[in-house]
Design brief:
The complex is a heterodimer of chains A (about 450) and B (about 325). Chain A is built from 17 helices and eight strands. With about 450 residues, chain A is of the alpha/beta class. Chain A has a four-stranded mixed beta sheet with strand order 4-1-5-6, with helices on both faces. Chain A has a two-stranded antiparallel ribbon with strand order 2-3. A two-stranded antiparallel ribbon of chain A has the order 7-8. In chain A, a hairpin with a 6-residue loop joins strand 2 and strand 3. In chain A, helix 12 packs parallel to helix 16. About 0% of the residues of chain A have low confidence. Chain B is an alpha/beta fold. Chain B is globular, with a radius of gyration of 22 Å. The chains are: A alpha/beta (about 450), B alpha/beta (about 325).
Chain lengths: ~450, ~325
């Protein structure tokens, strides 16, 4: 009987939430934003990745210019059949008259490709002492792109090194072997097992989860509060209170709002997953080259992580939802809630901020301490779980404390609720609040 | 008397500053219509909330159906219409009724069936799928009324059920209440409109300032008042009768309504003498009837003219 009544309240809350305009709009809007956020950088990157026409002014006397041209011509945009050259090189010999040649070429630089054929995007000037000093100048329209410049500099360094090494008498073959770069790939290990996540993926997941928890708890928590106030002002409360206990009303409300929140997050989660797994299709759809997809590292989320996330979300939401509901029961308008709601919000903020500390140092003291405290562990623990290995004892302990903390908050909230929901006068002072808790 | 449906024993409820219900004891027998009367602020709603278990007494105890429990724990057997009406505005009417039924222990299917039946009975079936906020105030009241009776409770508690209703709706509501009483349900309703209570109630309790001042079956209350009253309707000039009405050897008090009046005869006065005096003074009469005192006059006598006047102003407003 008891459970049935709670269920009927849960159902009502859930249906009302899910039917509300705000819910429908945010549920649709967030995946659309995700899509834009995923596609926009790809589009932007795709645009900057076109072949650059570079004139190399050769003011040297040695083999340097040849080597530079060779290295740059070897650079491709993309891989496989669709790959195109990154640079279109024109070598202009200019021994002794480098300045005048360069000035002439610079005059022809910086025009758009479509309207001015045969002109240049950039001029690279190699002078006589470039090889020894390493100094050279690039004049171009794309110098503000840090990425393009870094790439150019790194390729030029390779060319310089190989010329210097051959001049020092080392065979080209040896130089080639020596210059082969290191290729580091990072894999996360948890409790002796490979998780299949790359380092950056774990980081993205931790960040994403932290934000999701914060947004969900604060927005749905606040909705619990306003819906209690609505019940008070519309006087539905008195009918409810004649057949339901405060505990049934409180639990039903928090669970109902919470399950609407879960549904919304599930929709968001599935669409995020779809976007990341269907990235190649999306890329095709928007005419983006495959190579830029490498940036969208697949967000691989393990089953255990989903479980941990859900556990902490549900318990955390029950805790804060109950507190918010209690605040709502004490007040008659949202304006009045400020004083008490701030206390709850500050608790959430502390948890949220310590999440950043946890991301920076997942094994540090802050992360460790915070993951034991019920108010903060919902934010800190899932992030720690995503970033580093957490012992089962630690996880279980933190969960047990969270459950105890949650029950204390629900109990406290139910007592405040009991008196608060039928109070229509001015809001209580802290001292009166304490009396409510003791008396009811 | 069989076991009472509701028993309050020396119940006191204080709020900061004043005592809303003061050492009140009542017994509501099973079956019939029980009126809880009193001027505004007499403590009627507080008494009802105590019976429902929404408020806890500071002293004394409330017992429903001799189970030792109050309304909330027996919500399957008790229906309640609070004075402050309120519904979820965004909810469709029928869904709302189903929800209310569920909180009172009905299954969804039963809630739906009963909800539809009641909406039809109260003439708002066409609005079943509309949102509550789209309904007029009167219709919302009917929906709330249906919500209180959905689960066919043995005991129905209505706090000011007729306030804010137009005459047609009030009639529908009254008929429904009377019909339920005939079927053996017990109905407690509070009101400050004496005429209504007089026509409907089997038993009454009159409260004033948190205390019970009158308690008993309506007929007995009237008989015990020990007074003889005469009801007059004037057809001619009312002024001509003023001299007779002021005669203290005939008339103890007058409750003057203008075109009509209720007169309390002075002790030992003969109704026949009053009639001949009235005829002699030349005022036209369309009615002269020796009656039991009206509840209104008992109310005034017990509660005081001031409170009664306040109640009358309320009615007029």
């Amino acid at each position: 009987m008891n459970a049935n009544k709670i269920l009927s309240v849960v159902r009502r809350e859930f249906v009302e939430r899910v039917h509300s305009k705000a819910f429908v709009i945010t549920t649709i809007l967030v995946p659309v934003l995700l899509l834009i956020m995923a596609v926009a950088p790809m589009l932007l990157m795709g645009q900057s990745d076109h072949t650059a026409r570079v004139a190399v002014v050769d003011g040297t006397s040695g083999p340097l210019a040849q080597q530079v041209v060779k290295v740059l011509r070897a650079q491709k945009i993309g891989t496989g059949a669709t790959a195109k050259p990154r640079y279109e090189i024109t070598l202009v010999p200019a021994q002794g008259k480098a300045d005048s040649v360069r000035e002439q070429l610079v005059d022809e630089t910086g025009f758009s490709r479509a309207s001015h054929k045969g002109k240049y995007d950039g001029v690279l000037e190699l002078t006589a002492d470039t090889l020894s000093s390493g100094k050279l100048t690039y004049y171009g329209s794309n110098v503000s792109s840090i990425k393009a410049m870094a790439m150019l500099q790194s390729e030029l360094s390779k060319a310089f090194a190989s010329v210097r090494l051959t001049q020092a008498g080392i065979s080209l073959d040896t130089v080639g072997k020596a210059m082969r770069p290191a290729n580091l790939s990072a894999r996360r290990v948890s409790e002796g097992k490979l998780t299949g996540q790359s380092g950056s993926s774990a980081f993205a997941v931790a960040y994403g989860m932290g934000f999701l928890l914060y947004i969900a708890i604060i927005s749905f928590g606040a909705r619990t509060m306003t819906s209690v106030i609505e019940e008070k002002t519309s006087r539905v409360m008195e009918v409810l209170v004649s057949s339901l206990t405060p505990f049934q009303m409180l639990m039903g409300k928090v669970l109902g709002v919470g399950s609407a929140g879960l549904l919304q997050m599930a929709i968001w989660g599935v669409s995020a997953l779809l976007i990341s797994t269907q990235a190649s299709h999306l890329a095709g759809l928007f005419g983006i080259s495959q190579s830029t997809l490498a940036m969208l590292s697949m967000l691989s989320i393990s089953g255990s992580m989903v479980v941990v996330f859900l556990l902490y979300f549900i318990l955390g939401f029950l805790l804060f939802g109950a507190l918010y509901a209690a605040v709502g029961s004490m007040c008659n308008s949202t304006q009045e809630t400020q004083q008490y709601a701030t206390v709850v919000t500050v608790l959430i903020l502390i948890g949220f901020l310590s999440m950043f500390g946890t991301i920076a140092n997942p094994t540090g003291t802050l992360a460790n301490v915070m993951s034991w405290i019920p108010f903060f562990s919902p934010f800190v623990m899932p992030v720690r779980w995503a970033l580093t290995s957490v012992s089962s004892v630690n996880l279980a302990g933190s969960l047990v404390l969270l459950v105890i903390g949650m029950w204390c908050c629900v109990w406290l909230a139910a007592r405040i609720y009991h008196t608060g929901i039928l109070m229509f006068g001015k809001k209580p002072s802290w001292r009166e609040l304490w009396r409510w808790i003791r008396v009811s | 008397m069989a076991t009472p449906n509701v028993r309050m024993e020396h119940v006191t409820k204080r709020f900061s500053g004043h005592t809303a219900v003061d050492d009140m004891s009542i017994e509501v027998p099973s079956g019939g219509i029980f009126g809880l009367l009193g001027p505004n602020g007499a403590g009627k709603s507080t008494a009802i909330r105590l019976i429902m278990g929404i408020l806890m007494p500071d002293a004394g105890k409330v017992d429903l159906f001799s189970t030792g429990k109050h309304g909330r724990h027996l919500s399957e057997r008790v229906g309640y219409l609070p004075e402050e009406r309120g519904l979820y505005k965004k909810m469709p009417v029928l869904d709302h009724l189903i929800f209310l039924g569920q909180t009172r222990g009905l299954s969804r299917a039963d809630g739906r069936r009963q909800g539809q039946a009641w909406l039809e009975r109260l003439g708002v079936a066409d609005w079943a799928d509309k949102k509550v906020e789209d309904l007029s105030k009167g219709m919302q009241q009917k929906v709330q009324f249906a919500g209180a009776m959905l689960h066919d409770p043995e005991l129905l508690i209505l706090d000011e059920p007729f306030s804010g209703l137009d005459p047609v709706n009030a009639q529908v509501m009254k008929d429904t209440v009377v019909e339920l009483a005939h079927k053996g349900h017990t109905i407690i309703f509070s009101t400050h409109v004496m005429e209504q209570a007089e026509r409907m109630c089997d038993r009454i309790v009159i409260m004033a300032k948190g205390r019970k001042v009158v308690d008993g079956p309506l007929a007995q209350v009237k008989a015990e008042s020990g007074k003889r009253h005469v009801a007059l309707d004037f057809s001619g000039s009312r002024e001509l009768a003023s001299g007779v009405l002021a005669d203290r050897s005939l008339v103890a008090s007058v409750d003057d309504f203008g075109a009509s009046a209720e007169i309390e005869l002075a002790s030992g006065a003969d109704p026949g003498r009053l009639l001949s005096a009235l005829v002699a003074c030349g005022t036209g009469l369309s009615r002269f009837q020796v009656v039991e005192p009206s509840l209104q006059s008992i109310f005034i006598a017990k509660v005081g003219a001031e409170a009664a006047h306040a109640a009358r102003v309320e009615v007029a407003a």
